[in-house]
Write a structure and sequence with these properties.
Blueprint: E1 17-21, E2 27-29, E3 41-43, E4 46-47, E5 75-79, H1 82-90, E6 98-99, H2 107-110, H3 112-123, E7 127-131, H4 140-149, E8 153-157, H5 167-173, H6 180-192, E9 196-204, H7 212-224, E10 230-234, H8 239-252, H9 257-263, H10 279-291, H11 308-326, H12 331-346, H13 351-364, H14 370-384
This protein binds iron/sulfur cluster.
Length: 385
């Protein structure tokens, strides 16, 4: 493996190079929505990111076109025909949530994100925008207009606050991105405009972000700025991205190398047994309850969607399966919920109609549902009215 020690970019940032090109496709489609962000489609305008967060998984070989991970923050490829490709592709797709938007500094000049949002607006597709840059405020009016027709989400990637014990360290790790206090201020503006907003606390860096004081600070700042959720996950490290990030730690925080060596031994992608997940996830859940927000993203649903009830039920089943995972339940139970959620998501008919015409037997007849989950779905239907 070629070793790529990180540059001293904290002190000597390079000048960025922009390369425009015309890809053949821009839209990634899934069979169904994921259970984290609820997105079914994704479409991005740029490859590479000027924010250059040192932990970014996009430096992994499978995502990055660059042999040298140092290039990721300084050589940015611009998909100049992305809006036209998106219009053509979405025109053939059922309406569902699109993961899109990228407000790194070059967006001010190239505006590909904005033009892609305009396509979603024209075609009535809801959007999920996840940002580390408050520059997304430029398009607040456009996103608010999309949101009026199709409920959307603007979330902010935030892993620390000025109240956090390791704030200075985290700022060095994401030093090219605007500070979190500006992201929180932007969150407050989106909340004021009626958008569903919150924090994606990703990734929680071991030894820097996983202490209770930081977890509470992030949840409290989110609630104080109108955020409705904190969605958290751990750090993954793979191939050249792992090599790069460990190089950053060795250069700036050598005291953490032993911890990371234990958590991410040779060949391991996610933290090994010693790390504190799910304790951290349960702590975040407890803190979210304390501050009146959620530890999952509420599923945005178009009220006129004939499958709105199906989507609400899927949301409940996914929440239950996450709870089971945190409780270390048997994988058999977890998979039973996952498969039932997928089956309800795949159902073309309104599940309410199925229940009204066929009763409990109709629910239990849905593939992968069976008798006990059929009863649970019946209970959810009654609860949702
Ligand atoms: S803002 Fe997101 S995409 Fe950009 S470098 Fe940071 S983690 Fe990666």
């Amino acid at each position: 493996m070629t070793l790529h020690p990180p540059p001293s970019s904290l002190y000597f940032p390079r000048r960025a190079t922009f390369i425009t090109y015309q890809p053949k496709t821009v839209l990634n489609k899934s069979k169904r929505a994921d259970h984290w962000f609820w997105t079914r489609y994704s479409a991005y305008p740029y490859i590479g990111c000027q924010h250059g967060c040192e932990f970014c998984y996009c430096r992994e070989r499978k995502y990055s076109p660059y042999d040298d991970p140092n290039d990721f923050a300084y050589t940015i490829k611009i998909k100049e025909n992305a809006p036209e490709l998106l219009r053509r592709a979405l025109g053939r797709c059922p309406v569902d949530l699109v993961f899109t938007g990228d407000y790194q500094p070059l967006e001010r000049k190239f505006q590909v994100s904005r033009r892609m949002l305009e396509v979603c607006h024209d075609l009535g597709f809801p959007v999920f925008v996840l940002e580390r840059n408050p520059g997304v405020l430029r398009d607040l009016d456009l996103i608010a207009s999309i949101n009026q027709r199709a409920p959307s989400v603007v979330a902010f990637s935030i892993i620390s606050t000025p109240d956090s014990p390791n704030y200075d360290r985290v700022r060095q790790i994401e030093h090219l991105a605007p500070p979190p206090e500006k992201r929180f201020a932007a969150m407050a503006q989106f909340a004021k405009a009626g958008l569903l907003t919150g924090t994606c606390m990703m990734p929680i860096l071991p030894g820097m972000c996983d202490d209770d004081a930081n977890l509470e600070a992030v949840v409290r700042w989110t609630a104080d700025h109108g955020g409705k959720f904190v969605l958290a996950s751990g750090l993954t490290l793979s191939d050249q991205q792992k090599n790069y990030f460990l190089g950053v730690l060795g250069q700036r925080f050598p005291d953490l190398l032993a911890l990371y060596g234990t958590l991410y031994p040779q060949g391991s992608y996610s933290p090994a047994g010693g790390w504190q997940w799910p304790r951290i996830a349960l702590k975040i859940r407890e803190l979210c309850e304390k501050y009146g927000i959620r530890d999952r993203v509420p599923r945005p649903i178009i009220p006129t969607d004939k499958r709105a009830l199906n989507k609400r039920i899927v949301e409940r089943l996914a929440e239950k399966l996450y709870t089971l995972e945190l409780a270390n339940a048997s994988s058999y139970r977890v998979w039973a919920y996952r498969k039932a959620a997928w089956a309800v998501d795949d159902l073309e008919q309104d599940i309410g109609l199925v229940y009204r015409t066929m009763g409990l037997k109709g629910l239990q007849g849905i593939e992968s549902v069976g008798s006990s989950l059929g009863l649970e779905i019946e209970r959810i239907i009654k609860e949702l009215g």
